[in-house]
Amino acid sequence: MLLNFTDISPIKKSVEIEIPAELIASEAQRVTSEFSRQARIDGFRPGKVPASVVRNRFAKDIEEEVMNRLLPRTFHEAIKDRGLVPVGDPRLEHVDAFIEGAPIKYKAEFEVKPTFELGDYRGLDIDEPKIDVTVTDVEAMIERFREQGSTYRLETERGAEDGDYAVIDIHSTAEGMEPKTDSGHFQIGEETPLPELHDALRGRKPGETAVVEKDYPEDASNEDFRGKKVRHEVTLKEIRVQEKPEVNDDFARSVGPGWESADQMREAIEADIRRHREGEAVRAKRNQIGERLLARHEFEVPDSMVDEELGRSLQNYARFLATQGVDIDKAEIDWRKVGEEFRPEAVKRVKRGLILEQVAKKEGIAVSDVEVDAEIRRAANEQGREFADVKHRLRHDGGYEELRGSLAQEKALELVLKEARTR
Question: N or C: which end of the chain has fewer CB within 10 A?
Answer without folding.
Answer: C
